[in-house]
Design goal:
By secondary structure, the protein is α/β, with parallel strands linked by helices. It has two domains: 139 residues, Beta Barrel (Lyase, Ornithine Decarboxylase, Chain A, domain 1); 218 residues, TIM Barrel (Alpha-Beta Barrel). It contains twelve helices and 16 strands. The strands form two sheets. Strands 1, 10, 11, 12, 13, 14, 15 and 16 form an eight-stranded mixed beta sheet that branches. The protein has an eight-stranded parallel beta barrel with strand order 2-3-4-5-6-7-8-9, surrounded by five helices. The two termini are 43 Å apart. Bound molecules: pyridoxal-5'-phosphate (PLP).
Length: 396
């Protein structure tokens, strides 16, 4: 595989490698081919629509969390399916949503009743998001089954609504759940046990034609157990005579892109720090990439992105604590060690930066947005989007 020359890149910039994206897409496509299930791109995680033509060759369409995402998927992956889930739909937007979307998933029976007529008249397939009250997500802000969650209908509420109105499910053709985050198919298997136990009798209804397993399936990770996923899909499709949908975001673009940054300044004094019980000396260094602006999940998740050529703090002789060029003290990416002293202007390549990065960017502190580039074998590295002052000013 031709190597990308990161040294020629003006920083900061994201680069998405189409070859790596396509490797992921082939894996996802093979699951559709083997099971007959349908896989959608969750645009929340990756909305680089200049590559939707490529994604659309392999996947069945897009899913959206809002009107704007729905419109983007409809416009840019034209002719493919457009789905949407939103915790609550806006009355001013619903006419457009129902025109754009093939499937509309409602957060509750109450939401469905409110928009049912409009949705059915537009020919949308309507579904209810259920909350099986079982998840294995440890980071609470990513756990849709946390206590008091607003995401999805619990069995209790579902049955109470049906008791009040026995016809409440008229027109409903699908069920949806989303309770996973970066997980393997053994988690899915356990989630499904709970979904079946609670909602199995409803999935058996002849009106139910599809079940959407949501996202959070880390399918394109090397240790992902695809065989188990295939068994799970087949089991649900055969037992309930339904079509299964998956809507991964992260797995589509996993390890398919980089954020290239430069070292702007290195502090002159060392400080002591501890990692994994081991003490080491480090220096603060300032980059033209920011955790707060360009990789907010580093702070939110939190997680430690890989940098090409760097190791854990203290492992190699020179350790640096990288921070962004903002005034936020906590705008820290992490501590990394190198086999040489870093110089101003040196380039650093952060890995796995295609998903949940560009879609979350902001211009806090007036920090510039990184350019967006892509690579393919025909064009090499090519520009997709450049940003400037106007992008900052226009939103304020
Ligand atoms: C976030 C989300 C997804 C995508 O999740 P990934 O973790 O990126 O795979 C899919 N469906 C729904 C309803 C979501 O909220």
């Amino acid at each position: 595989m031709e190597k990308i020359n990161f040294n020629e890149i003006k920083t900061p910039a994201y680069i998405v490698d189409e070859r790596l994206l396509e490797n992921n897409l082939r894996v996802l496509r093979s699951i559709c081919d083997r099971t007959g299930c349908r896989i959608l791109l969750a645009q929340k995680g990756f909305s680089m629509y200049s590559l939707y033509h490529l994604i659309g060759k392999y996947l069945c369409g897009t899913t959206a969390s809002s009107l704007y995402e729905a419109r983007l998927g409809h416009e840019e992956m034209h002719g493919k399916e457009t789905h949407i889930f939103s915790p609550a739909y806006n009355e001013n937007e619903f006419a457009e949503i129902s025109r754009l979307c093939d499937h509309v998933v409602f957060n509750s029976i109450t939401q469905y009743q409110k928009f049912k007529k409009q949705a059915l008249q537009s020919g949308c397939g309507c579904g209810i998001r259920v909350n099986p009250q079982y998840a294995e997500v440890e980071t609470e802000i990513y756990n849709p089954c946390c206590a008091g969650s607003r995401l999805g209908t619990t069995l209790d509420v579902f049955e109470r609504d049906l008791k009040d109105n026995p016809d409440a499910l008229d027109g409903i053709t699908g069920l949806h759940f989303h309770v996973m985050c970066e997980q393997n198919s053994d988690t899915l298997e356990r989630v499904l046990e709970h979904v079946e136990k609670k909602f199995g009798s409803y999935m058996k209804l002849s009106q139910i034609k599809w079940v959407n397993f949501g996202g959070g399936h880390h399918i394109t990770r090397p240790d992902y157990d695809i065989e188990r996923l295939v068994r799970c899909i087949n089991h649900i499709q055969e037992t309930y005579d339904v079509l299964v949908y998956l809507e991964p975001g992260e797995a589509v673009a996993l390890n398919a892109g980089y954020l290239v940054a430069s070292v702007m300044s290195v502090q002159r004094e060392n400080f002591k720090a501890v990692y994994d019980g081991k003490e080491y000396e480090a220096r603060a260094a300032i980059l033209d990439a920011s955790a707060a602006c360009h990789m907010p999940d580093v702070l939110e998740m939190p997680y430690r992105p890989e940098i090409i050529g760097a190791k854990l703090p203290g492992e190699l002789p020179y350790t640096y604590r990288f921070g962004g060029n903002t005034c936020l003290a906590g705008d820290i990416i992490g501590d990394y060690s190198f086999d040489h002293e870093l110089e101003e202007g040196e380039k650093l390549v952060f890995c796995d930066m295609a998903h949940y990065s560009m879609v979350k960017n902001n211009t806090f502190n007036g920090i510039a947005l990184p350019d967006i580039l892509a690579y393919n074998d025909i064009r090499g590295v090519y520009p997709v989007k450049k940003f400037g002052y106007e992008d900052f000013k226009r939103r304020l």
